[in-house]
Write a structure and sequence with these properties.
This protein has about 160 residues and is of the alpha/beta class. It has six helices and five strands; from the N terminus they run H-H-E-H-E-H-E-H-H-E-E. Helix 2 packs parallel to helix 3.
């Protein structure tokens, strides 16, 4: 409830779900720009919802911010499973009208927007390079950066094996 008020006040359109099953249905139907996922949900737990979102081709690219009352001991595992960010509810001070949640969402959305722009630009460069140098075939390699989920396209000449 406090999350919804804080985000609505910040100008976001907010949808809610009462449990994990409803959250999955809503994500698949609405395809939101971002998902705030509580870890303690009835029917399907937060980690189960995160896994389901990340294996579904329709929802796998939606960034998920994990919200929890638990300590950050699970942060690394959840980030490896596809969470874009991990936030402890107590650090957000939602009951005091804090803007921290909106700022965290904005940061994640900006990072993803930047990643997409870089990826698109690299694809454009690879296409131009391939068109300009038709004597040598080019390929596009997609590399994962382990520090956080980010896909980068790297143009390079085809290796001759």
């Amino acid at each position: 409830m406090a999350n919804e008020r804080a985000l609505s006040k910040a100008g976001y359109k907010v949808g809610t779900a009462a449990d994990g099953e409803e959250a999955l249905r809503a994500a698949r139907e609405q395809l939101p720009d971002i998902i705030l996922l509580d870890m303690l949900l009835p029917k399907l737990s937060g980690p189960e919802v995160l896994k389901a979102l990340k294996i579904d081709p329709a929802t796998m690219h939606i960034p998920v911010i994990v919200l929890t009352s638990l300590s950050q001991k699970n942060e690394e595992k959840l980030m490896q499973e596809g969470a874009a960010a991990y936030l402890e509810k107590s650090s957000l001070d939602l009951d005091k009208g804090s803007d921290r949640l909106a700022a965290a969402i904005e940061t994640v959305l900006n990072r993803i927007s930047h990643q997409k722009a870089v990826e698109l630009r690299l694809q454009e460069i690879a296409a131009k390079k391939a068109a300009a140098d038709s004597s040598q075939p080019w390929e596009i390699e997609v590399a994962e950066v382990e520090s956080h989920s980010c896909t980068t396209t790297i143009p390079r000449p085809l290796s001759k094996n």
